[in-house]
Amino acid sequence: MDGALKLWSVVAIVGALNYLSRLSFIAIFAHRGVPVLLARAFRYVPSAMLTALILPMIVHVPDEALSASLPRIIAALLAGVVAFVTRSTLATLAVGMLALWALRLLVAMIG
Amino acid sequence: MRRVIANPDFRAGFIDMLPAALALVPFGIVCGVAAAAAGASLLGAVGLSAIVFSGAAQIIAAQLLAAHAPLAVIVLTCLVAGLRFLIYSAAMAPNLRPLPARWQNTLAFLMTDQVFAVAVRRFDAGGDPRAAGAHFLGSGFALWLLWQVTNSIGYFAGNLIPVEWSLDFAVPLCFLALVAPQLRTSPTIVATLVAGIAVLALASLPMKLNLIVAGVAGIVAGTVADFTKERWTAR
């Protein structure tokens, strides 16, 4: 398939599906309840999906050795603690990035 | 339009979004860089950021486009990654019930992870639902506007940013800020652990299929843990 056509297909289809997902319950199910099993499963969608999404961005397996991922892993753990306590995106980002830069500097100084 | 912008609740929403929006600046730039790397035209990149308007979906789509994955795989992976919007929609539905359909349809389009978080806080504070709706519109509009600007910066000037800054790392951090605070109940911890282990264990699967499998495994594990916990507590 032609690259531009494929890109615009992605924009149209994913854009429409995203919008329908966001609108779904607001528009259709506003007046009835959600089935029990579905409501229960729903609670775990954000944690499970977002974890599956972000972990490969932190731990680069199998492309690099675990030791090479270590600064990112430690920085993410620190940022995770900050997020748990503060619930602030800005604080999480600041601590995570600063920790990563500091750890890289440390590795460069030792190594 | 002018009446909306003059609305104090709309302005308050716009301002309340700014701290989180500031944190999303690097994420938006990374999305613009990814679109450029996937060979998107300027219009295509704008289409992604303005219409898809979801950082996670944009990154996945751009990476899979660059890897020449089939359209069906790209759509399916983005769909699964976007399943969380169903939850946001279900959680937001009771709040938006008093508003006209036109408002519901517009606000739904703007409901990303961060906008949802800000809007829920505002609705929980109580008061006139129309005022909270205007606040929602303000914060959604603020983020949408910033998203277009940062994505464009990334598209045009991404290659000027030094690699050593590791700007990519801002993306998992933005989502970490949403996941970590949820780790307060045991089923959520189970869902997170299972999804995390699965996504890394299956990392060699082609076309990021590990993302879908791990996500679904985590959801099932969390649900089972929830019912198990309930049975134990009831005993």
Which spans of chain B of ≥5 residues are poorly predicted at pLDDT below 50?
none
N- and C-termini, Cα separation of chain A:
48 Å
Q: Specify the biggest β-sheet of chain B.
A: none
Molecular shape of chain B: globular
Residues in helices of chain B, as a percent range: over 70%
Number of domains of chain B: 2
Query: What best-fitting shape of chain A do the alpha-carbon axes yield?
Result: extended
Structural class call of chain A reads: mainly alpha
Compressed to H and E, one letter per element, the order of chain B equals HHHHHHHHHHHHH
Return the structural class of chain B: mainly alpha
Give the H and E element order of chain A: HHHHH
Radius of gyration of chain A using CA atoms only: 20 Å
Strand content of chain B: under 5%
Features:
heterodimer; A: 111 residues; mainly alpha; extended; B: 235 residues; 2 domains; 13 helices
Descriptive overview:
The complex is a heterodimer of chains A (111) and B (235). Chain A has 111 residues and is mainly alpha-helical. Chain A folds into 2 domains: 1-33; 44-110, no CATH class. Chain A is 80% helix and 0% strand. In chain A, helix 4 (66-86) runs antiparallel to helix 5. By secondary structure, chain B is mostly helical. Helices cover 78% and strands 0% of the residues of chain B. The longest helix of chain B has 29 residues, at 129-157. Chains A and B meet through helix 1, helix 2, helix 3, helix 4 and helix 5 of A and helix 2, helix 4, helix 5, helix 6 and helix 7 of B.
